């Protein structure tokens, strides 16, 4: 693409000479035979050019008639002359314009004598190498478009070059142009450039055309102090970073990026406008004030989004590490892996940017530091407590707890709104027995929790589900097979449905609960309930139920002091027990530790009872022995008694005297 | 009952044989544990309840394992309770693993040891593939033998090992002893190729054991019967035979015959009544769950913990003014 004003010159120059070749051009493709030339001489406007034989058999010699020479003394057009070589041009030393367009010339030769040449047009030839120009020190316009040039070279002496057109070649690299300090237009479109640099030295360059290349990044443009127009259409630029030097070029006013991947991006326009405030035209369209303004607004938003997503990815990473750490600890606990020092995990999970916030402390409310961000982003994800050993996360309607340390977070002051929104509570890597102890707290703090999820919580016995009965209501239960062996049992779902029938659960592990399920559950375990309620002796019933209630209230009282509302809660809870199917109420679950504790306590009592009974037995046997002894002795004793009495009374008189004596003695 | 043998034993031994002291101690212990509640309605009442429940076999429900194991009567009651509660599982035809049966056992006794269940499972599975599924009746009968005669079986195992090793345990056997007087025996060339031990020799040893054993053991006549049918037998083969023997089952008296295992008309009736309430259960989270004829047990509120035991009445927690008979006059 030659700039307009130059094109017309060659057009004008084309009208003076036409040099035809014989149609039957011989197979000597590179050579022009002398006799052919002589035979097929013709000219349109009656100029007289002859090509005579020269002393060198390969090159034709060009001669013009003297009228021609005078008329067009400084210009010579040899367009479409089917030239395969440059002919020797004699006697034209003051030639200033030379046009060789649309030929088959393969090498630039035989023009070294034209030292006044300013304009040389070799567009559309077969030139493979720039050469033969070293004497043309006045050359200002060099048009080498549509050739086969592979390398920019041999331009050292062309210091006055103003326009250099190399479009449509096979150039892969910009080089050897640093000395062209007068060059104003450089056209390298439709080449094989993959990047742009080596532009320093082109101090006058105003226009640089790089369309239709394979450029991925641009450098050095900020070293061009006069560059106003830069055409980068149809390249391979995809990020602004690859062309970031453009932002530093204060002279640029016109730029095109169409046809690049970057132009398809959503952030394209405003990023360019934001970073290149000096631009007047983008992609051949004027940049309006409105556009500029919107660009800066959009850029700000983009920036914020990036910051936020970076923060979120940091947070996610931290969470992931924490969860890994918790999982590892859990596995150790379960003796699944041999204990190797887990310290490397600890170190990795320390986030260098926010040490004060995360290390050691159990509470770090993110909402405090995200004041500047959109509220939408903060409410989507609130990581409230992240340490090395446990993780608590509230994500909309789900409260997730990882690691047993997380259970303490239930003691925190949760805002009513946050707590009210939570409908799902998920426990991972926590022993079920520990969860059981905080269920009363859960009931109070998160009254709307309807769906419980357990994963890696060591649920091994059906009995453990009894513990869930104390909650207010559970709609859904999800027990992940991983880490919960109880799921392998055939009957576990039915047992859950049976024991928690008063909840009228909707779903277990994602599958709907059908009427048939409920019936089957009742069928399987109904008798157990019956036995557990009506066949238990009364005192056992009372003691079991009493125990259960006492335990629950112990947990409640352990929380922050006694609130005035607590008394009411006791009453309402006891009413709640009534609401539950009481024939199952005796099916409780005591964690192993508590159970053993209780047994220990009972040991003392048992010992005492044993001793007490032994004493009683001893007493009883003694009494028995005495009884038996008495039985044996009694007849004899009775006989003696009777005999003594009879002997006494035998003599009435003396007996009367004896009695009277006894009476007086008494007084 | 009024045989002169009663009077032949000295006091302590008599009491010990009948385990009277066990129950008395346990009763007093229970009294101590729940003295606040029980003191409100009277100690006499409590003792009546307690011994009634011992007679009925409900005293072992939800008790600790040491108590359940203490007396043969307890063990038998426990077996019966287990059968009663989970007969429906068997009736449903489910085959369960050893762990699941153990879980069911734990529902009735929270600290029931796993080893016992494992041993019972070994009997069913002939010590092979412990993760196999077992049917309810198979497990139950094997469990009965294992649980009721645990100590006896330990001794038998020791005897069996001795016989296998070639020693003749016709001397005093303590299960843990490894050396006793034994005659020199010619090496049992071909005998060691065959499985198990010779039945007659085994039978002889067991007879001696039964004579000496102070723990309960199966009726010797029946044991002899079991052993008379075969030439040789393995340890588990013997146990399986024991568990399947009707006579022994009947002698124990805890479980019905195998054929009748799934029958329990009284409980089935009860179950039907419960099932009839199920459709209502679906939306009865707040509705009256005891609108049926179940005897109701409201949790104890201060003041009137005693309710009539077998009267069916509607649950109306507030109304104390029922015109039905109550026992409150006794307090």
TrEMBL record, chain B:
Write out the GO cellular component annotations: centriolar satellite; microtubule
The yes or no answer to whether the keyword Amino-acid biosynthesis is present is no
Q: Assembly and partners?
A: Interacts with PCM1. Interacts with TTLL1, TPGS1, TPGS2 and LRRC49; the interactions link CSTPP1 to the complex TPGC. Binds to alpha-tubulin.
What does this protein do, in the record's words? Regulator of the tubulin polyglutamylase complex (TPGC) that controls cytoskeletal organization, nuclear shape, and cilium disassembly by balancing microtubule and actin assembly. Regulates the assembly and stability of the TPGC and thereby modulates polyglutamylation of the microtubule, which antagonizes MAP4 binding.
Signal sequence interval, chain numbering: none
Q: Where is this region: Disordered?
A: 287-331
Compartments, as annotated in UniProt: Cytoplasm, Cytoskeleton, Microtubule organizing center, Centrosome, Centriolar satellite
Superkingdom, according to UniProt? Eukaryota
Give the main location: cytoplasm
Q: Which UniProt keywords apply?
A: Cytoplasm, Cytoskeleton, Microtubule, Phosphoprotein
Q: Which terms under GO biological process does the entry name?
A: cilium disassembly; microtubule polymerization; regulation of protein complex stability
GO MF, one term, reads: protein-macromolecule adaptor activity
Q: Which residues form a coiled coil?
A: none
Per the record, the similarity remark reads: Belongs to the CSTPP1 family.
Biased composition, Acidic residues: where in the chain?
Answer: 318-331
Q: What is this protein called?
A: Centriolar satellite-associated tubulin polyglutamylase complex regulator 1
